[in-house]
Design goal:
globular, binds 1-deoxynojirimycin, 19 strands, alpha/beta, 23 helices, six-stranded mixed sheet
Length: 661
């Protein structure tokens, strides 16, 4: 590492840091809003007053959420329903102009109850941050909070009140496409990430003009989909629910989260959307949650496919009685509510309770006082320079250096000719990834562009080699020639954004298509190169891990992908991320995670009857927490302040850390 780089990235002098690890469950986050306050008492009074005036149709209307159009427009029907007070909420409608028009219609209704505008702001509104799994690799909770706060400020300015994030599902199966959306495999890290993101979205008062309501989702067990196949059934003991899957949700509540989304899966045969154990016993009774529970998209309707409900009315009955307050997209509460009431399948008390939960949120959001977004504010706030700077920093901090033989990286700035290979090096839209809010496909800066901007004098040869599916090797020869003729090659490979996310599970998590052949072709050129890996999940990259000189894991970095990657490759930023999830050697090892329980027959190479495979090591390719750096650290003097602790006690562990690079 050169001195210049050291000066910019890490202080060159040795330093000592006392690190503190608290080896117990995450302490309760400071509750952001006291449960009983004068404000809340006043809100309950207002809710009672409203409820007393509402017709059954108006009550059921508050429990309905409908989907806007993909580009953010409301549908004509929404205006009509809002004017009649029959639409409580929408999802996807966004932008100050659109949301204001719809809000105006809602305020023309008899009781003037404002509409609640939700949207999936998962890793940014318009300024797109790294995907949540990637951002978690920073282990920097203040960064997670900051990026959520930026996303909140942009969203609220654009008329959005409510995000369906953070996803706090613990996920230990990289085949599951939605592993990209969470904080990875570890419950403790997951709780910290949940707290940070809730605080970022909501602040201490989400009625403020730069905050939004957050949602802890998917309640619960969605990340444990069997075989990693999205929407599949689960098999989780209550103990595992309580120890592994519940804690991030509880931490989110303690941090003030005021909405939950039910999950698509069943738990012990009972769909989560109609599951009184998790929705009533745990959430409301044990945890005293007084916020809003929304179903996932058509999850009420899906109760019929689960085999629980025999028809639409039955589905509405099960979901409402279990405690799902608001129905997303399907319309069974509204269609069958009156009849169910007549038949005494649901009670008015149940309906009122759910309506209360919706109205409570609307009051806490301050929608009755400030229902509109300001178009001027939207222009000033959304995609502003400061937000892009935060997005670049977040991207840099999410990068994990998986391999760096012989200090292949950072690349010397003095090189004259560089080859850039891979279609993902020059594809803006792909950098946004999936669930990219209102991010526009033309917004991101690519690696190729950033390189040209940073080094206008450098000779850059670009070869796409193949498209993201990479089904043909027609471009490989040109790519290998470019590598041969250059001093250094940046090889950008991995998954396209459509290969992870919802409904995007993979049974094979190798590099897609013929990309491994491409790596081998570039490798055979015999020149130095670094692999930049873009992906939404752990991949099985054994050959690359063994043979390529350097690998930089960059996930999907968002709007500022190119500048962050190029600055890191050239040493103006130091990759300090650590994996929040294990990278297996083979899908056959899944589930593989760092804190598996003991076996009575631990692995011993010399003994046959121990826990192992015949054809592969037990160890992962890269373990949870793995990540190199451009410098080196010495960790010495590990001390524990006690040698024994009781279950609820804390233990202080200190070490000296010296930057020896
Ligand atoms: C389905 C997804 O499971 C959920 O996470 C998302 O918030 C909703 N659709 C709304 O888009």
């Amino acid at each position: 590492m050169t001195k210049a780089i050291m000066r910019r990235t890490l202080r060159p002098i040795a330093f000592t840091l006392a690190l503190l690890f608290v080896l117990s469950s995450a302490g309760p986050a400071q509750r952001a809003r006291p449960a009983v306050s004068a404000k809340n008492v006043e809100i309950e009074r207002k809710i009672n007053a409203l409820l007393a005036r509402m017709t059954l149709a108006e009550k059921l209307g508050q429990l309905q959420q409908l989907d806007g159009e993909a580009k953010g427009n409301y549908r004509p029907e929404h205006l009509e329903m809002a004017r009649k007070g029959l639409l409580g909420s929408t999802l996807n409608v966004r932008g100050a102009k659109m949301t204001n028009e719809l809000q105006r219609a809602a305020l023309e209704s008899r009781l003037k109850i404002p509409i609640l505008l939700g949207f999936d702001v998962i890793h940014g509104y318009r300024t797109i941050f790294p995907v949540p799994l990637g951002e978690t690799a920073s282990w920097d909770m203040s960064l997670l909070e900051k990026s959520a706060a930026v996303a909140a400020a942009e969203s609220r300015a654009a008329g959005v009140h409510w995000t369906f994030a953070p996803m706090v599902d613990i996920a230990r199966d990289p085949r599951w496409g939605r592993i990209i959306e969470g904080a990875g495999e570890d419950t403790y890290l997951g709780t910290q990430a949940a707290i940070a993101r809730v605080r970022g979205f909501q602040g201490t008062d989400y009625s403020r003009p730069d905050r939004i309501l957050a949602t802890a989702k998917h309640w619960v067990g969605y990340g444990a989909a069997e075989a990693g196949r999205d929407y599949s059934t689960t098999n989780i003991t209550e103990r595992a629910l309580r120890e592994v899957y519940f804690p991030p949700f509880k931490a989110a509540i303690d941090a003030g989260v005021d909405s939950f989304m039910t999950s698509f899966n069943d738990l012990d045969g009972v769909p989560a959307t109609a599951n009184p154990f998790v929705l009533k016993d745990v959430l409301r009774k044990e945890w005293k949650f007084d916020g809003l529970v929304v179903s996932d998209y058509t999850a009420v309707m899906e109760l019929m496919f689960h085999g629980l409900a025999k028809d639409e009315a039955d589905a509405a009955m099960y979901a409402l009685n279990a405690g799902t307050d608001m129905e997303m997209v399907s319309r069974f509460y509204n269609k069958h509510g009156e009849d169910l009431l007549k038949r005494k399948k649901i009670s008015m008390t149940t309906i009122d309770e759910s309506v209360r939960n919706v109205l409570r949120i609307k009051f806490r959001l301050g929608l009755f006082e400030n229902p509109f977004a300001e178009e001027g504010r939207e222009k000033a706030e959304v995609f502003k320079k400061a937000n892009l700077d935060t997005a670049k920093l977040a991207a840099e901090k999410s990068f994990v250096l998986l391999k760096n033989d012989n200090e292949t990286l950072p690349i010397k700035k003095s090189i004259k000719e560089i080859a850039v290979i891979g279609t993902l090096a020059d594809n803006k839209a792909e950098m946004n990834s999936n669930w990219a809010g209102d991010g526009q496909p033309e917004d991101p800066i690519t690696v190729l562009q950033a390189l040209k901007d940073k080094f206008p004098q450098m000779r850059i040869r670009y070869e796409a080699a193949c498209d993201p599916k990479c089904e043909t090797d027609a471009g490989f020869k040109k790519a290998a020639d470019a590598a041969k003729d250059s001093d250094f090659t940046i090889l950008v490979i991995g998954e396209s954004s459509a290969m992870s996310g919802e409904a995007s599970s993979r049974s094979n998590i190798d590099l897609p298509g013929r990309q491994l052949e491409l790596v081998k072709a570039v490798h055979a050129a015999g020149k130095p190169y670094a692999v930049v890996l873009i992906n939404g999940r752990p991949l099985t990259i054994n050959w690359v891990a063994e043979n390529s000189p350097a690998i930089l894991e960059v996930w999907f970095p968002g709007t500022m992908a190119g500048p962050a990657i190029v600055d890191t490759l050239f040493g103006d930023a130091n990759p300090g991320g650590k994996l929040p999830v294990t990278f297996p050697r083979s899908v056959g090892q899944i589930p593989i995670y760092y804190n598996q329980k003991n076996t009575g027959r631990p692995f011993k190479a010399s003994e046959k009857y121990t826990s192992k495979y015949l054809d592969i090591d037990n160890t992962p390719l890269y373990p949870f927490g793995f990540g190199l750096s451009y410098t080196k650290f010495a960790i010495e003097n590990l001390k524990l302040d006690k040698l024994e602790i009781l279950p609820n006690e804390k233990l202080r562990v200190t070490v000296d850390v010296r930057n020896t690079g």
